[in-house]
Design brief:
Blueprint: E1 4-7, E2 12-15, E3 23-28, H1 39-57, E4 61-68, H2 84-92, H3 96-113, E5 121-124, H4 129-141, E6 145-148, E7 151-154, H5 170-176, E8 190-195, E9 213-215, H6 217-229, E10 232-239, H7 246-258, E11 262-269, E12 272-274, E13 277-278, H8 289-294, H9 299-307, E14 315-317, H10 319-338, H11 347-357, H12 363-375, H13 380-394, H14 410-424, H15 428-440, E15 443-448, E16 451-456
Parallel strand pairs: 3-4, 3-10, 4-5, 10-11, 12-14
Antiparallel strand pairs: 1-2, 6-7, 7-8, 8-9, 12-13, 15-16
Helix pairs in contact: 2-3, 4-6, 4-7, 6-7, 9-10, 11-12, 12-13, 14-15
């Protein structure tokens, strides 16, 4: 089956055809590094990792670009409030630069724990200030900007189809807006460049043709994606919360500058909820990967849990659900390990698996196919080879898993030590008798160059 993906822009599931044969340009909105990522954030990155793995599974060479927002993301989407990085600095007592570095590394560590592949290219907003300035100048040159006392703004009224991605009711938004517009001409207008307050020096600010300041949140993704992938590329990803504001504004900027909608496919993952409410830092109900580890769970159990729901369906987090996922993952690991050396993968099962993953990344049905494989009459060697091939998409590191060695009882270790002492004293008959006692208890002693090793038979 040909790969099909749901495109938010057209509101339809379409056959995927890369713009360049055999190659895929994929851009994913990365984290704002003012705090730890929570597992709701990370569900989106798991979905994007699955998408990348499915593209690779289909034979495409993927150029995956992810940004790091380390400046310009204000508390409010209405371009008001403080910069989240500056707030993080106040909260921690560290500089904005220091917290950006710390939380970037924490995010990468969480990715590794969840076996999320790192992108081909990382791009930090603060490393691309000039690119963002040039993009704003391009938009300005085409007549889509105006100046206020606090920045350069995008005039959304100049784009007849502004808001198409989110199917926004622009007239209704303007009429019913409760946002204090200030000098903004329309409620949907947004900042391209913000001026530094005249009475204070920000930690992060740069000179520009319009004055000292910092870029708006949306401009970084338009500028950096176009730099690394071109002004029209294959797939742009993000969370469902990006649809109506951030991605809508990325498209507007790119239409104004390059006359494209930036990406051929816009693909969005849906929220992880807790108690039927969105998980978020602002409401204080977020859990981190470290929280799961502290509760005794392998982070890959959370990845497995996410695979059990379609990426376009909201998933409610609960400890019972995570426990069930952990149990199922361990069953799959144990089965895979018990099958020994793999041989050749079964073509029929792989075809079924491919059909499911190519149907808009239908991972719940792909997992059902995996369990059918486990219960099948195929030889163990074939089942293992097939499962390991499927794990190229699942990302569960099944080939690496080893069962934990059971703790050896103290009395057995005492007998092994007494035998070693008897051997050292050349009391061979006593040593043999102690070995038999250990064997009778269900253990055996293996003499190695590093000393005796005890294991359960």
């Amino acid at each position: 089956m040909k790969l099909r993906l749901y495109d938010t822009y057209t509101r339809s599931t379409r056959d995927f055809e890369p713009l360049q044969p055999g190659e895929v340009g994929l851009y994913a909105c990365g984290p704002t590094v003012y705090n730890y990522a929570h597992i709701g954030n990370l569900r989106t990155y798991i979905f994007e990792d699955v998408l990348r793995r499915v593209l690779t599974f289909n034979g495409y060479q993927v150029k995956h670009v992810m940004n790091i927002t380390d400046v310009g993301h204000l508390v409010s989407d209405a371009d008001t409030g403080e910069d989240r990085m500056e707030l993080g600095s106040q909260r921690t007592g560290m500089t904005a630069w220091e917290i950006a570095a710390m939380y970037t590394e924490a995010f990468r560590a969480d990715m590794a724990r969840l076996n999320i592949q790192e992108p081909t290219i990382w791009c930090k907003a603060t490393d691309h200030i000039q690119d963002q300035i040039e993009t704003v100048r391009c938009i300005e040159a085409h007549g889509y900007t105006y100046r206020t006392s606090d920045g350069i703004y995008f005039d959304t009224s100049k784009l007849p189809d502004y808001g198409y991605l989110g199917r926004l009711d622009i007239e209704g938004l303007q009429a019913g807006s409760r946002v204090e517009l200030g000098e903004k001409q329309h409620s949907t207008d947004f900042a391209l460049w913000k001026f530094s307050p005249p009475d204070q020096q920000r930690q992060m600010e740069w000179d520009s043709p319009w004055g000292k300041g910092f870029p708006g949140w949306h401009i970084e993704c338009s500028a950096m994606s176009a730099k690394y992938l071109g002004p029209f590329f294959d797939i742009h990803c993000g969370g469902e919360d990006h649809i109506t504001v951030h991605h809508t504004n990325e498209i507007a900027q790119t239409e104004a500058c390059h006359s494209t909608r930036l990406a051929n496919f816009w693909v969005h993952g849906y929220f992880l909820q807790i108690n039927a409410a969105r998980m978020g830092k602002s409401v204080g109900n977020f859990l981190t990967v470290q929280t799961l580890i502290d509760e005794g769970y392998d982070p890959l159990a959370y990845r497995f849990m996410c695979l059990g729901a379609h990426y376009r369906a909201r998933l409610n987090f609960g400890w019972e659900a995570l426990e069930s996922a952990s149990t199922a993952l361990n069953r799959l690991r144990a089965a895979c390990h018990s099958w020994g050396t793999p041989s050749e993968a079964d073509a029929n099962f792989l075809a079924r698996f491919t059909t499911e993953i190519n149907d808009d990344l239908n991972m719940p049905r792909a997992l059902a196919t995996v369990w059918d494989l486990v219960k099948s009459d195929l030889s163990d060697a074939v089942k293992k080879a097939t499962l390991l091939k499927a794990d190229e998409v699942l990302g569960l590191r099944l080939a690496e898993w080893e069962p934990a060695e059971a703790a050896i009882p103290a009395e057995i270790l005492t007998l092994a030590q007494q035998r070693q002492e008897a051997r050292a004293a050349r009391r061979w008959q006593e040593a043999d008798a102690l070995r038999e006692q250990v064997k009778a208890a269900g253990y055996e002693i293996e003499d190695t160059t590093q000393g005796p090793r005890v294991r359960r038979v």
